[in-house]
Amino acid sequence: xxxxxxxxxxxxxxxxxxxxxxxxxxxxxxxxxxxxxxxxxxxxxxxxxxxxxxxxxxxxxxxxxxxxxxxxxxxxxxxxxxxxxxxxxxxxxxxxxxxxxxxxxxxxxxxxxxxxxxxxxxxxxxxxxxxxxxx
Length: 135
Hints:
By secondary structure, the chain is α+β, with helices and mostly antiparallel strands. Helix content is about 25%, strand content about 40%. The protein has three helices and seven strands. It has helices spanning about 15-20, 110-120, 120-135; strands at about 1-10, 35-40, 50, 60-65, 70-80, 80-90, 95-105. It has a seven-stranded antiparallel beta sheet, covered by helices on one side. Strand 4 and strand 5 (about 70-80) form a beta hairpin. The longest helix has 14 residues, at about 120-135. It is globular. The N and C termini lie far apart (about 40 Å).
């Protein structure tokens, strides 16, 4: 298994982070690793979305464990390798939030997928923080 975790603190309330998470079409505003993205239903357990990173093939991901204002997990399976990305929102005493991205990857390509999936997490979290704090 390949695991990785990144986090950032923001003055934005958990509800604001959740608003940005639930707006899947808007992810491109704070995640440069997305060229195209399309959600196929509501932001709830079992809904899928298709995503295309720059220069890569389109893949399908399923939302699991969606919890309003707390976070969600997405699951992608490619050629027998399972990628779970947990997006957690932790309320802070200040009224802000800590946003945690953690990844668990299992299967034959875990060691190859891991660095590729998580390399931009610091940039994504920083951009998410900046957009969240603007509103």
